[in-house]
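User: Second chain of the day. Same drill as before.
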Amino acid sequence: MDREIEGEAMNRVVVTGMGVTSPIGNSIPEFWESLKDGKVGIGPITKFDPEGTGVSLAAEIKDFPSDKYFAKKDLRKMDSFSAYGIYATLEALAMSNLNFEDEDMDRVGVIVGSGVGGLVTMEEQIIKMSEKGPERISPLFIPMVISNMAAGNIAHRLGAKGICTSITTACASGTNCIGEAFRNIKHGYSDVIFAGGTESSICEIGIGGFASLTALTKSDDQYRASIPFDKERNGFVMGEGAGVIVLESLEHAKARGANILGEIVGYGSNCDAYHMTSPLPDGSGAAKAMKLAINEAEINPSEIGYINAHGTSTVANEKGEAKAIENVFGDNSNVLVSSSKSMTGHLLGAAGGIEAIATLLSLENQYVTVTAGTKEIDDDMNINVVLNEGVSHSFDYALSNSLGFGGHNAVVCFKRYIED
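Assistant: Same format as last time:
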């Protein structure tokens, strides 16, 4: 413990593993190559006939390698959101090279959230009840759909007996989970936490529900469907998947000779307290969350080189986020902005998990990925969005923003790790 705040020693918190399943890759190397190449993972919906919803596109996982970690009987006992979360966790575990025989498993935790939970199973079982009666509901219905079960299933798979929590804050869920895990280790309650988000909501009720809110694009052009900050944006594209990272205290990671991928140095979380689905138009809530993360990192806004924006491709959200960025950074053109959702679609509660990974990879590789498909920034936005292709960029600090329905704002500040 080598940092002190108000007289109390604090742990530095580092990242030692990452795992992902997403519309643009089911491994970290594939995910990163897709981000660098500006690969768009959006296409026609194949999981159901979407004609009645008016929406034709989504960002589905391709070729999910279910046989890598699961037997078929395992998958019959859980919703896909749990399976995605377990997969990403075991990928992160493999990268971390943790040996649980050397760990106090009471100090190994899981904080993995979901915005919706087992929506696919919920839809299936409600249809079955309607058609065949309540006696035909699966006895596993409840443990398959409740949103904490990804975290519970992960902890069971790992044998992790420390904190096990699932945070549900809509599209901010994954980032809140990472931020709370950071604080838990920073204050010395845990040695290791697997943190992130998972989601599987590409089904008729999921697409239909968001379509009824007029939140989804009805575009049929996969390359111009998710276009964050573009003046022609008109709604988000639903995505699916999971992103999980391994957090440890620096002392713990060094003691076991871990390969350190990055550091978390700040976290901000608050609420707009304004509207069920719309953000504060002036972006003041999101701006406060960014300032909180920067203040905890004990740096100046000018030291932030990159923001992985929430950037959903919806009009109200991005007007507010752009104003928030302008509020915090002014005319600092050194702050590059891009949105991974231009390629992955919007993974709802899992977005913060995979976007944390995207941000860490950008820091590690000193490269900011493109906002694919976006061509012309809206006239009232004074932010430096990366267009056309990604760029090499020298920077030590980055933010990952997540802004959820209900006014939930969550921001994590990452630092490039340099050996002391």
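Confidence is low (pLDDT under 50) at residues 1-5.

User: Great, on to the next one.
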